Amino acid sequence: DFSQIKTKFDPPISPSEPGEALIVRPLCPADYDKGFVQLLSQLTKVGNISKDQFLRRYTTMKACPNTYYVTVIEDTRSSHIVGSATLIVEQKFIHECAVRGRLEDVVVSDDYRGKQLGKLIIMTITLLAQHLNCYKITLDCKDRMIPLYTGLGYKLEQGGSNYMQIRF
Ligand code: 16G
After folding, report:
1. For residue 52, what are the domain limits?
2. In CATH, what number is assigned to the domain containing residue 48?
3. Mean pLDDT across the stretch 91-118?
4. Cis link prior to 12 (omega < 30° from 0)?
5. Is residue 102 within 8 Å of 88, Cβ to Cβ?
6. How many independent structural domains does the chain possess?
7. Is residue 162 in a domain?
8. CA–centroid distance, residue 103 to ligand 1 (Å)
9. Residue 51 contacts by C-beta under 8 Å, 6 or more apart in sequence?
């Protein structure tokens, strides 16, 4: 039930009514031809991905049920993917064999700024994680994105988990 979401937007939008001619839905194979990969390249380095590579990765994701929730926003007028974010549901032994959510690869096209679409897709994924009984949802982001996430209820973990990585 996403109806609670509407009150947090001005003008009021929701996943079922994201704005004129827009739809929020799961990724599908046809999205390769609707600019999904080009959209991702506004987030980070993507490289050249052939349609075959895209479809193979789509298939291997689908083969892990209840794990990858790649969500997109399509502008049905231009048939272009203009926003995306992914929920990954990770299975755990801890917390009585709980699941934990990860919010990944949030991107909204430069051409669609100011329509609250980043906020909408983040809230959609967050509510989905809650609905799927994740005991928490986490993300990492650039400093400049922190206010967006804190405004939506995310908290910087104090004196605990630091984000660490090794790049290969
Ligand atoms: C950001 C993204 C992360 C993405 C990474 C790509 C969010 C909340 N965070 O940290 O999901 O995978 O950027 O950057 O969307 P990279 O190519 O440097 O790993």
Report:
1. 3-150
2. 3.40.630.30
3. 98
4. no
5. yes
6. 1
7. no
8. 9
9. 32, 33
58, amino acid identity: Y
Q: Which residues line ligand 1 (CB under 6 A)?
A: 43-45, 103-106, 139-141
CA of 139 to the centre of ligand 1 (A): 9
Does the interface predicted TM-score (ipTM) exceed 0.95?
Answer: yes
Residue 7: band (very low, low, confident or very high) from pLDDT cuts 50, 70, 90:
confident
Asked if residue 166 is part of any domain, the answer here is: no
Using most ligand atoms within 8 A of CB, pick from 39, 43, 143, 145 the residue to mutate for ligand 1.
Answer: 43
Q: 142-158 burial by CB neighbour count: b if 16+ within 10 A, else e? A: eeeeeeebeeeebeeee
pLDDT at 8: 87
Mutate to test the pocket of ligand 1, among 125, 139, 145, 156 (most ligand atoms within 8 A of CB): 139
Query: For residue 92, how far is its CA from the centre of ligand 1 (angstroms)?
Result: 22
* Alpha-carbon gap, residue 53 to 60, rounded angstroms: 11
Which pLDDT score, from 0 to 100, does residue 21 have? 97
CB 2 within 8 A of CB 51: no
Whole-number Å distance, alpha carbon 106 to ligand 1 midpoint, is: 8
pLDDT at 2: 74
**pLDDT value of residue 46:** 97
